[in-house]
Amino acid sequence: MIKPKTTKRDTREELESLVDQFIKRNGTIQQVNMGESGLVDGKYNTSHIGFNEPKQDRTPLNHVVAAIQQRKHTKSPTTPAAKKRPKKKIIYDDFGDPIRWVWEE
């Protein structure tokens, strides 16, 4: 049996019922300013931002790129040329009905 997809309306109703149950059990909702929940001690949490280390020097690999490009543009003599295979062609009469098959090269 296929499980029906939950719609946005179903999700909203479920959340509203959960909030109502929380409030009925004497739960309190704390109001916070927008963006405040992302702050740590009143400042943005920068420990997860990846700019703490100094800039590293890159290793030049121009000779490696040149070797790859050269291999890409040189054709290897080991690959044989593809032989042309005969193709099967259908012959039609004047009314468009098929008559017979013939092989063409």
Which descriptors would you attach to this protein?
single chain; 105 residues; alpha+beta; two-stranded antiparallel ribbon; 2 helices; 4 strands; 16% strand; SutA_RBD; Transcriptional regulator SutA RNAP-binding domain-containing protein
Please give a structural write-up:
- This protein is an alpha+beta fold.
- The chain is 28% helix and 16% strand.
- It has two helices and four strands, in the order αββαββ.
- The protein has a two-stranded antiparallel sheet with strand order 1-2.
- The mean pLDDT is 83.
Give the strand order of the largest sheet, numbering strands 1, 2, ... along the chain: 1-2
Radius of gyration of CA atoms, rounded to a whole number = 36 Å
Q: Can you count the helices?
A: 2
Low-confidence stretches: none
Distance from N terminus to C terminus (CA atoms, Å) equals 55 Å
- What is the percentage of strand-forming residues? 15-25%
User: What structural class results from the helix and strand content?
Assistant: alpha+beta
Major sheet details: 2 strands, antiparallel
Summarize the helix and strand pattern as letters. HEEHEE
